[in-house]
UniProtKB/TrEMBL annotation, chains A, B:
The keyword DNA-binding applies. The keyword DNA-binding applies. Residues 14-74 form the HTH tetR-type domain. This is TetR family transcriptional regulator. GO terms for molecular function: DNA-binding transcription factor activity; transcription cis-regulatory region binding. It comes from the Bacteria. Keywords: DNA-binding, Transcription, Transcription regulation. Residues 37-56 bind DNA.
Amino acid sequence: MTTTDRPTTAKRDTYTPETLLAVAVSVFNERGYDGTSMEHLSKAAGISKSSIYHHVAGKEELLRRAVSRALDGLFAALEEPRAQRGRAIERVEYVTRRTVEVLMAELPYVTLLLRVRGNTQTERWALERRREFDQRVADLLKAAAADGDLRADVDIRLATRLLFGMINSLVEWYRPHPDGGAEQEQLVDTVVRMAFDGLRTG
Amino acid sequence: MTTTDRPTTAKRDTYTPETLLAVAVSVFNERGYDGTSMEHLSKAAGISKSSIYHHVAGKEELLRRAVSRALDGLFAALEEPRAQRGRAIERVEYVTRRTVEVLMAELPYVTLLLRVRGNTQTERWALERRREFDQRVADLLKAAAADGDLRADVDIRLATRLLFGMINSLVEWYRPHPDGGAEQEQLVDTVVRMAFDGLRTG
DNA sequence: GTCTATATTACGATAGAC
DNA sequence: GTCTATCGTAATATAGAC
């Protein structure tokens, strides 16, 4: 069950870039990326600073891995079949739902992504990809508006921003419960309902 | 018109804690508080690092002054007469409107407040006062729900969080235009409408 | 009020032993 | 893979001249 009883290579109970990442992201989210030193990470991981450099090239690589994971999840939602065909309003609603689900499933990684400021190259790259994602959703909303399925008195760009503002704010307080699957789905329902009962025609 | 032609004390065109604060907050918001060094502030203000220490005790005092200003504005909204009397749903709507207006009027200060993490004493104090404000609004929503003016299928605590999530997300993209008063009011209208058309009964 | 110079500490990252 | 020791840099803050 653990990593110790593997078939061929008797893997030891040590850090991999993956497991170290989980620790690092947790600290990044608590203290902020810039507010986290390698010393902080070292303490949290229970190994020395220099040992961290054995697994990853440095602090920025940890950030890159984390935001990549978040972005991969979000873009995957856009690529799903149900986000590709059907009426635009239904595609928007589906992408909204899946975005919230990805946010919940990859909470620490998405949290970090949403707090990136742009001081390093990695952060600027992350911001660019985020804008790309937002634009794709904005295009979907635009199509739904063209179909007459969105109320006409709200600017599409503004509606997109408020929609994302509401969704993204979940990272500020949502904490997953063990075996809280039903609870999670109910939360997703509420978010989608709150968003679209204020957006949809009729 | 400028500070040079004052009646008694011929004030020189130099920094005060107030004017220096505006510069500092701007940099804090661009780079993040932890990502901003006194050197950054020095360059942005056009004076040396040590000159900054002549005006303020240090970096943290600038943060304290900034978040205080934001919090003062927000709490003032709760103290206004229209937030004190009348039907709860109307008080909620008024406070929502005023909160958005304060956010716009004090944008850089509120932005900084909303990004505080809790690494220093000042930050923890700010987080505590923010929670206090959120609680006051949540109480208003609770009263409105007791009056039957909010839809019953949404948890009050969740609704409060989503409402603030939407409002607070404005700091991520809203930028005031000179003489854009009408535009601002239209934005406030949209935010309030989007929030309550998804919340209000009927 | 502003400056240069500097004290002191913290940071990211590396060297090299085990 | 992990450690201790350390390098070079950048950080906050102070001293003291003008």
